[in-house]
Design brief:
With 303 residues, the protein is of the alpha/beta class. It has two domains: 75 residues, Helicase, Ruva Protein, domain 3 (Orthogonal Bundle); 199 residues, Vaccinia Virus protein VP39 (Rossmann fold, 3-Layer(aba) Sandwich). It is 40% helix and 18% strand. Bound molecules: S-adenosylmethionine. The site of S-adenosylmethionine (SAM) has 23 residues, from helix 8 and helix 11.
């Protein structure tokens, strides 16, 4: 099996461990068989969603929607199809994130390219965008800065959902900015992309809104993270000591009067972040929970 690293234990995706070799020879490895074997293979390698992963990977290999698999469970796979499916399942079995194996992922109303050049956009970050859009209500052409833009997800979603917004994505990673540029081209949305170090100061505004999902994981937690995150996502996207405070403090001198700031933060950081926003002179401070009821987004406005 191409790229197999599992030491031969557990079922082999698409090999039909219970006589499947014979079936494959006769071209009778059906969608149903491959889904079952792939699910077992991925479960044995620690995926928390093995069936879902298997369905999405097989759908990708066959160029189908997931629902189409269920309309054709008895359809045999041709050897090239089986090879493509196996290659994807083996990658996922090595704990590469499903999103990177698929190469694209949904965020708000967009489908974006995702790969190890940048963090995978998360569902909680959709709440960051939601709050940003609330703060932009009533403004026709607001100037928006997305600090640590990564794949460009936040910047592009804001531009998509508030088309008058003039959005700039800011990041120090050349790789992330290249991915963000690809996503701008893919979605046909116009944003500016600027390279720089947030610890050295934010681009001069004035900005009407500063939005950021900065690296907020404590470096000591990295070894405890799931292999998908720890071994595949860029560490500079996960951790940078003092980044949340640096974005907040760096924002004030470049914000227009009445401008807003919206920050995504880690578990247990809401109280300190809200206090910091008060300390640096912001008002209307508000904390919003994510979909799991974890306090995740802190916002404020310059008086
Ligand atoms: C948590 S990721 C957010 C990515 C994207 N905005 C999202 O929400 O999916 C943080 C981003 O901050 C960037 N970053 C880290 N340190 C930085 C720095 N000192 N200056 C500018 N950007 C930085 C990383 O490259 C990464 O893209």
């Amino acid at each position: 099996m191409t790229g197999e690293t599992g030491g031969g234990s557990g079922p082999q995706p698409g090999s039909g461990g219970d006589g499947g070799d014979a079936r494959r020879k006769h071209g009778s490895n059906t969608i149903s068989d491959v889904l079952r074997l792939s699910t077992e293979y991925l479960a044995a390698r620690g995926s928390e969603t093995p069936r879902l992963d298997a369905e999405r990977l097989l759908a990708k290999a066959l160029g189908l929607e997931r629902i189409d698999l269920y309309m054709a469970l008895d359809r045999p796979l041709m050897p090239p199809e089986l090879d493509s499916a196996r290659a994807l399942v083996v990658r996922r079995g090595a704990r590469e994130p499903l999103q990177y194996v698929l190469g694209e992922w949904g965020f708000r109303h967009l489908t974006l390219n995702v790969d190890p050049r940048a963090l995978i956009p998360r569902p909680e970050t959709e709440v960051l965008v939601e709050r940003a859009l609330v703060l932009l209500e009533g403004r026709d052409a607001p100037r928006v800065l997305d600090v640590g833009t990564g794949s460009g997800a936040v910047a592009l979603a804001i531009r998509d959902e508030h088309p008058g917004a003039l959005v700039t994505g800011f990041d120090f990673s050349v790789d992330a900015l290249a991915l963000a540029a690809e996503n701008a081209a893919r979605t046909g949305l116009e944003i500016d992309l600027v390279r720089g170090d947030l610890f050295a100061g934010l681009p001069p505004g004035p900005w009407d809104l500063i939005v950021s999902n900065p690296p907020y994981v404590d470096a000591s937690e990295i070894p405890t993270l799931q292999p998908e995150v720890r071994d595949w996502e860029p560490h500079e996207a996960l951790t940078a000591e003092g980044a949340v405070a640096a974005v907040a403090r760096g924002a004030v001198p470049v914000m227009a009067p009445g401008a807003g700031i919206v920050l995504e933060i880690g578990i247990g950081q809401a109280g300190a972040t809200a206090a910091l926003l008060g300390e640096i002179g912001l008002v209307e401070i508000r904390v919003t929970p994510d979909l799991r009821e974890i306090d995740r987004i802190v916002e404020g406005r310059l008086a």
